[in-house]
């Protein structure tokens, strides 16, 4: 089978690279230009290459990316707690959309996998309760949607051809097998947001951490929003 070119995903990689560079170097103008383009570029790829998706699935996937776009813009200023909470709300909508899509594809929570996610969620919630109480409640609520999506993304039933090691599907040729890694990267990115909020104090450490946050986030969305994973 001849692979079709996917220019919108290539452009997404470029926009993501500029966004990370802007964060690490402190060039906020680069972020304001590049970051709002990221999810629309993935949405354009879904529109072009997801024509064979069920109409409801395509609508939810595009809606999830629209919610992520709002969150992306809000989190260009990650040190503003009001924007952080509003951004988390937008991403909760996105995570709920992803969960709905994977449930439709047959994913179900497995106790062993769910237990790992619940433990991580409780750990983050406890840390925020004591170290960042002003944002603990809304971010903990968001974490529940993240944990649900991550649990479903790692269900072996979602990608039967993939090996599952330690509660994670190992990527293979099936795009669905990469959803677990995408969700794991998203979890890592969001976990770093919490750690940055609490422990990163110097301008340099905050910029570098923000670059890692954005890099892992961009990689996650690249895997999660692939329309081939939602067929």
TrEMBL record:
Location within or outside the cell: Membrane
Pfam families with a match to the protein in the record: YhhN
Entry keywords, A to Z: Membrane, Transmembrane, Transmembrane helix
GO cellular component, one term: membrane
Source organism superkingdom: Bacteria
Lipid bilayer topology: Multi-pass membrane protein
Stored InterPro entries: TMEM86B-like (IPR012506)
Gene Ontology MF terms in the entry: hydrolase activity
Main subcellular localisation: membrane
Similarity remark: Belongs to the TMEM86 family.
Full protein name: Lysoplasmalogenase
């Amino acid at each position: 089978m001849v692979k079709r070119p996917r220019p919108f995903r290539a452009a997404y990689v470029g926009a993501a690279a500029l966004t990370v560079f802007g964060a690490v170097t402190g060039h906020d103008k680069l972020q304001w230009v590049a970051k709002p383009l990221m999810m629309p570029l993935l949405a354009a790829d879904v529109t072009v290459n997801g024509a064979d998706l069920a109409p409801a699935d395509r609508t939810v996937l595009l809606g999830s990316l629209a919610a992520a776009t709002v969150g992306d813009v809000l989190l260009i200023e990650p040190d503003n707690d009001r924007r952080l909470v509003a951004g988390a709300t937008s991403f909760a909508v996105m995570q709920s959309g992803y969960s709905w899509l994977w449930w439709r594809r047959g994913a179900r929570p497995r106790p062993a996998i769910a237990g790992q996610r619940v433990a991580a969620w409780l750990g983050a919630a406890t840390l925020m309760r004591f170290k960042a109480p002003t944002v603990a409640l809304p971010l903990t609520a968001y974490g529940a949607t993240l944990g649900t999506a991550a649990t479903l993304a790692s269900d072996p039933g979602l990608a039967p051809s993939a090996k599952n090691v330690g509660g994670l599907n190992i990527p293979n040729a099936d795009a669905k097998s990469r959803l677990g890694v995408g969700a794991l990267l998203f979890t890592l990115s969001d976990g770093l947001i919490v750690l940055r909020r609490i422990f990163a104090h110097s301008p340099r450490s905050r910029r570098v951490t923000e670059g890692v946050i954005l890099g892992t986030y961009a990689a996650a969305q690249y895997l999660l929003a692939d329309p081939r994973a939602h067929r």
